Amino acid sequence: MKGLVMRSTGSWYEVLDENKHVWKCRLRGKFKIKGLKTSNPIAVGDRVVFDIEDKLENTGIIHEITQRENYIIRKSVHKTAHGHILAANLDQAVIIVTLNYPRTSLGFLDRFLVSAESFRIPTTIIFNKVDLLSEEEKDYLADLAAMYEEIGYSCAFTSATANIGIQHFEDILKDKISLISGHSGVGKSTLVNQISPDLDLKTMEISTFANKGVHTTTFSTMFEIAENSYIIDTPGIKELGLIDIEKQELSHFFPEMRAMMGKCKYHNCKHINEPKCAVLEAVSEGEIAESRYSSYLSMMDDDDNRR
């Protein structure tokens, strides 16, 4: 039987078959994916082939994972030099950010965009809680969104409490498998509950302590929010470590730098202090945003600019 992995809890996987029935499955024996060091061999979004083990117990055994179209990965918390796959076979990623309550750093946003770019996953940026912004913050947000849209990222503005942009948010997710991500507390669950109240995703008040969100999700889970529309809700990601990206190719995953390929004096230019570097010239002339270039440098230096 063929199925779609909807949830992983470590050793067991909830698999949706072609008749919309969910089976509780586990892997047959040791299972390693060739050439990929991961702490989880199967991820939410994987398409698998399984056999029914026990109809009464509703259990099955997975014996094949079909080839992934893409996946998004972060560094494993427990195993060094290993990755943890957050989700596979995505049509798009949707990152929800807030300028306040809590503040999402641009460093975190840029790292997420680079991770998605590295697997050619189209990404939409949702700026949530816009009703809480001052006029000055709204002006800053408009400039920020314009900058990201100019380099190819769609942006949308929402507020679950003030009912702003909810229909647009629903349209973005229609007929797609979408990874929804963002720091804890940015309002992922509240937004999804607005368009699919039957799900009743667990939400929690933002912790006022240190203005950091409280984690409400512990495992990646896929939900069907409408016919053929699925979202994958991931645990609030405190950090998204870049993995499997070589330093010499990092600039390829910044669309505005990719557009400059071949224009630098040196073919192996790292865009740091080389003479006649097209990227450095573009930064000094304001064609590339300083915040984006700062994110690039911090990734090159393995610094953490996500705070």
Descriptive account of the structure:
The chain is α/β, with parallel strands linked by helices and 307 residues long. It contains seven helices and 13 strands. It has helices spanning 106-118, 135-150, 166-173, 188-195, 255-258, 278-284, 290-300, and strands at 2-8, 13-17, 22-27, 47-54, 59-65, 71-75, 83-88, 92-97, 123-127, 154-157, 177-181, 221-226, 229-233. Strands 10-9-8-11-13-12 form a six-stranded mixed sheet, with helices on both faces. It has a five-stranded mixed β-barrel with strand order 1-2-3-5-4. A hairpin with a 7-residue loop joins β6 and β7 (83-88). α1 (106-118) packs across α7 (290-300). The protein is globular, with a radius of gyration of 20 Å. It starts with a strand and ends in a 7-residue tail after the last helix. Residues 204-218 have low confidence and may be disordered.
